[in-house]
Amino acid sequence: MRKNIRAKTNIRVESAPMPKVEWASISLDCAAVGNMLRGVDGVCGCTWRGPAIQAQRVHPEDITVNPARVICDACDKQRTD
Hints:
Distance between the termini: 49 Å
Helix content: 10-25%
Shape: globular
Mean pLDDT: 80
Low-confidence stretches: none
Strand order of the largest sheet: 1-4-5-2-3
Radius of gyration: 16 Å
């Protein structure tokens, strides 16, 4: 059953280009508004979905909205503002 497992796990995966976020310059750090983001779901432009408290940045108008527009860790690292 587990024959040739090493050959199948060495597959190279290329990442998709991250979408441009126009509101990134006005976004807030999630650590700064962490108490307001508890229980709020987050949606990133790269199709990441999860708790908004685990994202890196959040749109200022979506702090009290569920789901909130967020920037995930991968998109924040590739962002060039």
